[in-house]
Amino acid sequence: MSDLLTLHRYYIWANRMRDHFDRALGEFMQLGKRITDSERATKFFAGDPGIFMSYWYGGLYVVVEGWRELGLHDPDIDRLIDSPNTELLRRYRNGAFHFQRNYFDERFHGFIEEEGSAFWVRELNRSLGRFFLQKFSPG
Fold this sequence. Notes:
Blueprint: H1 3-29, H2 37-46, H3 48-70, H4 75-81, H5 85-97, H6 106-112, H7 117-136
Helix pairs in contact: 1-3, 2-3, 3-5, 4-7, 5-6
């Protein structure tokens, strides 16, 4: 089995968590003003939106690691991976998958509070999806 196909599997896993996150985020946003800001942050991170987002971000960083290890290149993806957001995404993954004593550890805030990080992570996800579709589509 090819290394690229294996990397694609990691992308599929991460992208599925994005699907779950998007659905959970929509439901969470319907809570609106019924909760306070401090309750909102805790409910977000302890609930489905935070769970799925963290697994999506962690899984997506695994794809970045594989991309680099396999020496793959695509102008759009390379440009996105060259961003400082990639290091922030790595730190987020570490915060999610290595025990942290602080509930709202800086590793989470560093990525979330970075201007444009939500757009960047979605753009990276879309670009990787495009890349794999091109590689595995017939014709």
